[in-house]
Specification:
alpha+beta; 4 helices; 7 strands; about 35% strand
Length: about 170
């Protein structure tokens, strides 16, 4: 197992997702965070997020409903490329001034996957040669919109593989 500092945690929402619509995200402000790579073939990760108490109800609801959530995390430093995980809330514990949320997740999209998917999408859009290179660099730098389609595809693939559950699927 390898342990890293969890630098950021974003929950990706899929409510009322229509074709070509962006997946909405909500940055969860961390007080402290830890992420453990269990180094298993299934790409399982354990996360602990220490948060302000205002987040307790939000995470308890996911736990009580046994509903999976799609997350985007960065480790070690915020400037690193994020990884996308599908997580289940395992516990929500009260601390003296904060809460501790334990998540278990499966890695579904990592940096290399995003780059591969981005270049594939650009080729499908008809880019080639120098224009392909320039557009790739532009979209990679401006992660936001370019990555939305990739995340949407990852979200659909995860649902197909059975990693992701939501209220509507139960």
């Amino acid at each position: 197992m390898k342990t890293f500092r969890l630098c950021s945690l974003m929950i990706l929402f899929d409510e009322d997702l229509k074709s070509n619509e962006e997946i909405k995200g909500k940055e969860i402000p961390l007080v402290e965070g830890l992420i453990i790579n269990k180094e298993e073939a299934e790409k399982n990760w354990l996360l602990e997020a220490v948060l302000d108490p205002e987040w307790e109800e939000f995470f308890r609801e996911y736990k009580d409903k046994e509903q999976s959530l799609m997350t985007e995390v960065t480790i070690t430093k915020r400037t690193n490329d994020p990884a996308t995980l599908v997580c289940d809330v395992k516990s929500v514990n009260q601390l003296e001034n904060h809460i501790s949320v334990h998540l278990e997740g499966v890695l579904v999209v990592k940096k290399e996957d995003l780059s591969d998917m981005l270049i594939k999408n650009l080729i499908e859009e008809g880019f080639e040669g120098k224009a392909l290179y320039n557009e790739y660099r532009k979209r990679k730098k401006d992660r936001g919109r370019a990555i939305q389609g990739i995340l949407t595809n990852a979200y659909e693939q995860v649902k197909e593989k059975g990693y992701y559950t939501s209220d509507t699927q139960k």
